[in-house]
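Q: Hi! First time doing this. I have a protein sequence and I read that you can turn it into a structure. Is that right? Here it is:
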Amino acid sequence: MALVDFQTGLARLVGAQQGTAPLDGLNLDTRESQYLQAVQTTPGFLFSRSIQRSWCIGRAAKGAHLTLSFLPEKERQQLLDEWIDSGAGNQSFFDAEAGSFLEFISRRLINPSHEFSICQLEQITLRVGEGKDNFTPPDAAPLSNPGCSLRRGRYAGLVEFYAEPQRLLESLQKREPLPPLSSEITAVFLGPGFEQFCYAPTAAEIDLWATLEIPQSVSTLLSQRHDQVTLKRLLNYGIIECS
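A: Yes, that's right. Below is the predicted 3D structure, encoded as structure tokens:
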């Protein structure tokens, strides 16, 4: 057995998930395979595996700290266990791992709910953080071209809160029950062009965001009574962009 196969086998076994075959594809004879199978029950190996799992869980929890804080302990632990058991939790890039975990969580939350809103907030905050360092307001000249296609900004998003956002955060800090869902929605844009990275949109801007679920040409948007002033403002903030 080559040393690289031995090292690869051990590494795979430490992070192996149920139902997987971590030794597949390695150049191992029968004796070597039996050794690597037997080592999995030794105290040292089990300790190493527990450390690796604990590290992955801690890393995932850090990436979705705010969302997980809004969930009961049992639900938090279940989500973390499911995430790690799926084989996730060990990507090289923290933001990518956090984004994937938040997406995983969002698919398991009720929409609408305060928990879902907070999860959206964390997801979009990650995107804004990714784009803000290199963002400069783009030239608005393409908006004069009727055929120019516009889409939602890659580093932006809209969060809908069903209670006053500050009240939600205060409930968490004070460990008080969350307020009931309100029929009045508080919408917030997050984007790389805002000074504080967030902005309370107008009804027209929310309508434009909804329309751009699918990219649209400038001429189509103007025919739907969206105006150049709104297009230019949201382009400047990075909420929309030319595709």
